């Protein structure tokens, strides 16, 4: 019988590293909601650790269960090439999200456009403090999406607003105490600082504490959101946060995986039959991002959202 | 200072205060920190400003409370890898209870009590079952982190609604001095005094120096180890509550890697990993050194890619110089 | 009479796995008596003392304190009853000052909140004053082992106890400190304190004790009044047969070398910055040489300096006529020169390693084959042979050395030295804690070695031993050789004379 | 097994092989792991599949090589916190050299040599300067991580162009068995044999058991400690190269927190943090235990919020049971 429905027991898995991280929660909700619509079963899997070997082991264990597809966040791109290709050979379709493994045979990649976020943030900063001024960034070297948010903003500033001067650049690695210390020092060294861009929310909490203590009126912009930064937005301590549209990421992620697994409904005008690849190829999907300000902050309380929902 | 009384041989009791100072274990560290600060005050005009100093102290004050607990535990011959997770758990439990409608002060007390219980749990496994501190606290580090996730579903808890009197602990100031720093100083001075001067805390040294000899002298060494283990976790609880009041949130991922930082501070300050020696004063100087280096690198806007290399090298150099100075003095 | 008994132990058993350390022993201690406990190494003396002090729990048996049965669960409870114990093995806190170590028990039960270091040091100084010149503010880790032993004794003397147990306290003490200790013991006994005194030195037992109890192989043999019994009876009771405890014969003319063969060891102008200076002496073939001196005179330092174990020494050393240019102790071992440490627990044995592994530590080549792997059978053989030769009492060769009695640990340390067939052995307090029978055996082995051409240098604080074993004794005072005695002149008086500072002027006269 | 030959007392040489097995230090751990595996094979039909077993072994095989180095270092009385960063640095240096056009095999040798140099650097500070392993390796951990950042600018190095023969080290298989597992087994068996049987490695035990007594037995203890420190870093270098070949990339953030995992494995396997005891076999069993627990939780789809709690609890329980079994056996 045809139609886009799951067979009984047809299962889709979402695999991540640092699986306790709250970022995944709304992503998985989106994934699950889409799956329910198609009558499919889902599993949230991965490793609680920040450890590539453990994530690969968990990914390979997922394969043992012969799922129809896996939506994976590969901690590093190249190490996943071989496991992803092996999974596809075994009949499990693979889609990546939030981080890619472009050289593998995965059929789709869903992500936020970190460049777009950075561009938006840069324009907003300039809009608020003017075309000539001082700004600083905190960063988290080694984590690709955070790196991109920072480097793209700096490049964009250099290209478009040459009068904007980068006066501080500190690694804080999502640690609020380190962010507190770094921000306090940057504020000290640069009394004329106008704005600060932070690629994640953990560091933002520490940075705001330092700014409040110094009674400075630096404009704070950051990506992602936590309850504490949300409150700071409401209180006006943080100007704005850019939050990737996680629900859409999971929802689109499921659709792409599901479609890859049900590619028999699709017979495109190309060489897939002779070359043997999956006809449902989606090189890049932008899940978009939300701009959180005082005005709409109330809608972004994850705890409120999760009330009555099952996280796993 | 008290220690020099202890260590000064009779012949030198007439010596000047300067000489006494030079005999102290901590003098080397003080000199190194002073040298760093003097260098920095030339390198950056902002270094010696009150605001910068305040920020530097604030950056290690709360962790300093944990350093106190760790130092005492190290002296007794133990070690605790769970400090980071237990501090996070303290925030999470208190925050969660508060959101359930419990008075924040009561919630904090319950949370500190829970952390004390965790310490007692570890103490039980160490003293009764006979396992090593390292492995017990490693397991508890994982369990406590798991409990943080369970309480919060992995999501930070926003506690913006904490009453202002409560937030005052972490954000308030008495005159120009933040309350956090005052609490920190009280804890440090109190424990430093107790460790040097009270009969009860001397038993910690005896136990750590030679557990068997201490037991032969009638000291209930297991009790001592149980108590130091418990105390360390209790102080993590206190630190967690202060962090919560300061940041107005409870983060389940808080304090990752804190244990190494805290142990490093104590060891730089002269605590022995084999037990039996160490001072609170020295350990705090160790924390100050680490903090001054980090702050200086940030203040000078050293490239991120160089910071770790410079930080590690300064640490190694400082410890080597300190070791050399101590060896020479003896 | 019965009222006078403060401690009564009957039918006590204690096993460690398969080892039955105590098999139904009895022991009775009266108020105000000095009661000696004698027995071979491993007879169970220390085990019984550990049980009385609550460190170990008996498997069965009754302990009566003032007539009422008690169970002593911990040293704390023993302390409450009024029992104090000086351990055979030194157990001090190395990172803590001498004064704090001495008053550790007092600090523990004290109801005072704060430490008064000044008072502590003053009191420690007054107690130490009678024993030796030790600075109470020093850390124990900086003290030589003999001073640590004195601190242990000082520690016991501060205890306010009714029963004081001394487990071989004089093993590393010289006559002088030992005599001071005995006078203190007698004073305490006069005050009504009962003392259990464990020693392998019969003279001490017979000069100072009221009664003596003998154990053999974990069993109770007898209790006698010292006045009614002779030393040889005690020894026979200990060993279960008649033993010859006489010292072996001295050097015979044919043992010595002709004038043409060089001395085994020739030391000239050996100096070290702080500890000793201008040491010159020779060790002739066939001879057993002794080094005497007061505690802290520097005997150990000189010998360690020769072996390159410690210090930065200058001077010339030749072994069998060839000048030595060794830089490490490893070189010294390869040259055939080995040193038996006085601190067996600190640097003599590996407590948590097996007996066999301990014995082969000095030269693994002996138990290895050409490819560098260890031949387990050869390792076992080597250990078995030496253990039998030295009469070591052990369960299995794979047991850790920590499970042996003190005297047997000492024998393992000696076995380790003998394993390499050395050309020259320095023995620092070689029979520390070794029982009479084994001691005589060790003395015989030393003499045999000397006869076969091995150089033997003995450092001992027990003058009768030096006089009995050595052909010649050098006396060290304050880092210098203050004189030499041999033959008829080798008497305790002469040696003490040369060793003590007070008679420095006399000594110079004599050596001139 | 070798050990039982070594340790078997003469009287018991006639005992059955079973009794010998029961005497081994490692028997408790083996039983615990077996119990877990049996439980799991009922709980999940996938557990005993070849793919799952392969995945579990692959998850710890390369880290197992580091465990070997750490165990030997622990036996000699040292410890090394820098293993994670040094492993990452090995990948980064080799990868960077390869991108500069150097032959990958030569690049790997240079990289392993560099890691060996780092070990020697640490060994120098420990044995000549006289610092504690903990603080030296902590500083080097920070420095090596900084060097990784500096070489890569914080971004992973893609090495897709590595020749197939080179990738074979990490991705190839001989028959059904991945080469990685074969290399791992060879390293483990070789070092286990050497540690139990060779005279050279016996000195490591003497040194760790009582450094002073070892020196008084003519062993050059500083040299021993220097060499074990160097060996540990060299094995990190080897592990890093294998990882690089396996993943076809070099990641500057690789191996964060690896040190605790590796030390835990060794300690679970019976290595003493005070030196003097431990076996490679035991340490590898420790690694197996940790890996089986993690893999099982993943396989059973246990909620992430419970995983850490369960993992820590199993660890604590296993170590307690093992301790109890060992105590009883003696
Ligand atoms: N912890 C232990 N484990 C196993 N055996 C032990 C242990 N302690 C003592 N033993 C054994 O108990 C026996 C008695 O030992 P103990 O120390 O009491 O002898 P001792 O009479 O004090 O001898 P010494 O004169 O050599 O000090 C010895 O055979 C010894 O090996
Ligand atoms: N580590 C050390 N630091 C400082 N001084 C030391 C050290 N070791 C020994 N000494 C000092 O060197 C001197 C000689 O000590 P040594 O141990 O050689 O004495 P000894 O003649 O062998 O007597 P005994 O061994 O019976 O105590 C002593 O005054 C001692 O205090
Ligand atoms: Mg004894
Ligand atoms: Mg001596």
TrEMBL record, chains B, D:
Keywords, sorted A to Z: Cell membrane, Membrane, Transmembrane, Transmembrane helix
- Keyword Cell membrane among record annotations: yes
InterPro entries listed in its UniProt record: ABC_transp_permease
Where does it localize? Cell membrane
**Matching Pfam families:** BPD_transp_2 (PF02653)
GO cellular component terms attached to this protein's record: plasma membrane
Recorded GO MF terms: transmembrane transporter activity
Its main subcellular localisation, reduced to a broad class, is membrane
Q: Where are the transmembrane segments?
A: 28-47, 53-74, 81-99, 105-127, 134-153, 173-195, 224-247, 280-299
Q: Which domain of life is it from?
A: Bacteria
Bilayer topology term = Multi-pass membrane protein
Q: Which PANTHER family match?
A: ABC TRANSPORTER PERMEASE PROTEIN YPHD-RELATED-RELATED
Its name, as the record gives it, is Ribose transport system permease protein RbsC
The protein's organism comes out as Phaeobacter italicus
UniProtKB/TrEMBL annotation, chain C:
Lineage at the top is: Bacteria, Pseudomonadati, Pseudomonadota, Alphaproteobacteria, Rhodobacterales
Q: Can you list the GO cellular component terms from the UniProt entry?
A: plasma membrane
What is this protein's gene name? rbsA_2
As one GO molecular function, the record gives:
ATP binding
State the compartments where it is located: Cell membrane
Q: Which protein are we looking at?
A: Ribose import ATP-binding protein RbsA
**At the top level of its lineage, which domain of life is listed?**
Bacteria
Q: Which UniProt keywords apply?
A: ATP-binding, Cell membrane, Hydrolase, Membrane, Nucleotide-binding, Repeat, Sugar transport, Translocase, Transport
Write down the EC number: 3.6.3.17
Q: How does it sit in the membrane?
A: Peripheral membrane protein
Q: Which residues form the ABC transporter domain?
A: 7-242, 259-503
């Amino acid at each position: 019988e045809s139609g886009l429905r799951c067979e009984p027991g047809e299962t889709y898995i979402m695999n991540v590293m640092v699986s306790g991280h709250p970022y995944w929660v709304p992503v998985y909700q989106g994934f699950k909601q889409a799956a329910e619509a198609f009558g499919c079963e889902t599993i949230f899997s991965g490793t609680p650790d920040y450890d590539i070997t453990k994530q690969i082991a968990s990914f390979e264990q997922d394969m043992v269960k012969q799922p129809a597809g896996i939506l994976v966040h590969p901690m590093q791109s190249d190490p996943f090439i071989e496991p992803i290709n092996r999974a596809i050979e075994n009949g499990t379709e693979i889609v990546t999200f939030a981080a890619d493994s472009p050289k593998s045979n995965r059929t789709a990649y869903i992500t936020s456009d970190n460049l777009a976020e950075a561009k938006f943030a840069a324009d907003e900063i300039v809009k608020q403090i003017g075309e000539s001024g001082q700004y600083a960034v905190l960063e988290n070297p080694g984590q690709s999406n955070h790196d991109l948010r920072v480097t793209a903003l700096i490049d964009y500033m250099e290209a478009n607003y040459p009068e904007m001067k980068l006066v501080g650049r500190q690694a804080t690695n999502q640690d609020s105490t380190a962010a507190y210390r770094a921000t306090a020092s940057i504020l000290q060294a640069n009394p004329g600082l106008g704005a600060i861009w932070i690629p994640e929310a953990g560091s933002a909490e520490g940075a705001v504490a330092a700014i409040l203590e110094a009674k400075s009126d630096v404009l704070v912009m950051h990506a992602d959101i936590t309850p504490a930064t949300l409150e700071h937005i409401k209180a006006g301590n943080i100007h704005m946060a850019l939050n990737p549209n996680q629900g859409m990421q999971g929802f689109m992620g499921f659709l792409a995986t599901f479609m890859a697994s049900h590619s028999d409904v699709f017979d495109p005008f190309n060489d897939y039959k002779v070359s043997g690849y999956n006809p449902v190829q989606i090189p890049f999907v932008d899940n978009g991002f939300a701009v959180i300000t005082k005005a709409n902050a109330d809608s972004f309380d994850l705890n409120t959202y999760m009330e009555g929902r099952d996280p796993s | 200072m008290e220690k020099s009384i202890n260590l000064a041989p009779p012949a030198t009791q007439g010596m000047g205060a300067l000489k006494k100072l030079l005999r102290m274990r901590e003098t080397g560290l003080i000199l190194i920190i002073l040298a760093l600060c003097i260098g920095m005050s030339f390198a950056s005009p902002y270094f010696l400003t009150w605001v910068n100093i305040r920020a530097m102290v604030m950056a290690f004050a709360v962790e300093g409370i944990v350093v106190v607990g760790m130092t005492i535990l190290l002296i007794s011959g133990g070690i605790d890898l769970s400090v980071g997770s237990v501090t996070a758990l303290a925030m999470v439990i208190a925050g969660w209870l508060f959101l359930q409608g419990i008075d924040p002060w009561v919630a904090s007390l319950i949370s500190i009590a829970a952390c004390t219980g965790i310490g007692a749990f570890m103490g039980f496994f160490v003293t009764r079952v006979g396992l090593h501190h390292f492995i017990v606290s490693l397991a508890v580090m994982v369990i406590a982190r798991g409990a943080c996730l369970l309480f919060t579903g992995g999501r930070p808890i926003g506690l913006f609604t904490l009453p202002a009197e409560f937030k005052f602990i972490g954000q308030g100031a008495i005159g120009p001095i933040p309350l956090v720093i005052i609490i920190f100083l009280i804890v440090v001075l109190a424990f430093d005094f107790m460790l040097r001067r009270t009969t009860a805390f001397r038993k910690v040294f005896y136990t750590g120096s030679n557990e068997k000899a201490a037991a032969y002298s009638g000291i209930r060494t297991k009790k001592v180890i149980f108590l130091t283990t418990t105390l360390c976790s209790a102080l993590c609880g206190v630190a967690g509550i202060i962090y919560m009041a300061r940041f107005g949130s409870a983060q389940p991922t808080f304090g990752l890697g804190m244990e190494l930082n805290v142990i490093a501070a104590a060891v730089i300050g002269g605590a022995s990993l084999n037990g039996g020696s160490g001072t609170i004063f020295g350990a705090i100087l160790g924390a100050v050194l680490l903090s001054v280096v980090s702050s200086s690198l940030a203040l000078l806007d050293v490239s991120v890619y160089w910071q770790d290399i410079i930080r590690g090298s300064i640490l190694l150099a400082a410890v080597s110089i300190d070791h050399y100075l101590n060896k020479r003095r003896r | 009479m019965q009222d006078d008994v403060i401690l009564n132990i009957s039918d006590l058993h204690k096993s460690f796995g398969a080892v039955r350390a105590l098999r139904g022993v009895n022991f009775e201690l009266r108020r105000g008596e000095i009661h000696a406990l004698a027995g071979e190494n491993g007879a169970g003396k220390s085990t019984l003392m550990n049980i009385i002090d609550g460190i170990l729990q008996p498997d069965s048996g009754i302990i009566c304190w003032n007539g009422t049965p008690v169970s002593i669960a911990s040293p704390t409870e023993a302390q409450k009853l009024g029992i104090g114990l000086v351990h055979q093995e030194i157990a001090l806190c190395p990172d803590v000052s001498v004064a704090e170590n001495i008053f550790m028990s007092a600090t523990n039960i004290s109801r005072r909140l704060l430490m008064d270091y000044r008072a502590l040091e003053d009191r420690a100084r007054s107690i130490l004053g009678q024993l030796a010149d030790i600075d109470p503010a020093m850390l124990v880790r900086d003290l030589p082992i003999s001073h640590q032993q004195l601190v242990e004794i000082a520690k016991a003397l501060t205890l306010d106890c009714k029963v004081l147990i001394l487990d071989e306290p004089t093993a590393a003490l010289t006559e002088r400190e030992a005599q001071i200790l005995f006078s203190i013991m007698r004073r305490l006994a006069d005050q009504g304190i009962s003392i259990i005194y464990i020693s392998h030195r019969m003279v001490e037992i017979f000069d100072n004790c009221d009664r003596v109890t003998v154990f053999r192989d974990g069993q109770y043999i007898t209790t006698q009044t010292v006045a009614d019994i002779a030393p040889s009876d005690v020894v026979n009771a200990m060993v279960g047969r008649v033993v010859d405890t006489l010292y072996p014969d001295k050097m015979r003319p044919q043992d010595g070398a002709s004038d043409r063969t060089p001395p085994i060891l020739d030391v000239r102008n050996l100096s070290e910055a702080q500890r000793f200076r201008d040491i010159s002496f020779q060790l002739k073939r066939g001879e057993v040489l002794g080094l005497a001196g007061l505690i802290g005179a520097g005997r150990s330092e000189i010998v360690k300096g020769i072996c390159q174990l410690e210090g930065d020494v200058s001077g010339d050393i030749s072994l069998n006529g060839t000048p030595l240019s060794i830089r490490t102790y490893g070189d010294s071992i390869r040259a055939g020169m080995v040193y038996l440490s006085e601190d067996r627990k600190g640097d003599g044995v590996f407590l948590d390693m097996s007996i066999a592994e301990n014995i082969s530590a000095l030269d693994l080549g002996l138990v290895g084959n050409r490819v560098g792997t260890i031949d387990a059978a050869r390792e076992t053989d080597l250990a078995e042979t030496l253990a039998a030769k030295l009469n070591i009492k052990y369960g299995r060769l794979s047991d850790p050395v920590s499970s042996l009695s003190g005297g047997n640990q000492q024998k393992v340390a000696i076995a380790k030295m003998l394993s390499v067939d050395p050309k020259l052995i320095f023995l620092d307090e070689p029979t520390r804690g070794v029982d009479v029978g084994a001691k005589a055996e060790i003395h015989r082995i030393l003499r045999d070695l000397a006869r076969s051409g091995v150089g033997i240098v003995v450092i001992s604080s027990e003058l009768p031993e030096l006089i009995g074993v050595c052909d010649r004794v050098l006396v060290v005072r304050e880092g210098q050789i203050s004189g030499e005695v041999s033959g008829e002149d080798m008497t305790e008086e002469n040696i003490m004379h040369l060793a003590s500072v007070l008679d420095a002027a006399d000594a110079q006269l004599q050596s001139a």
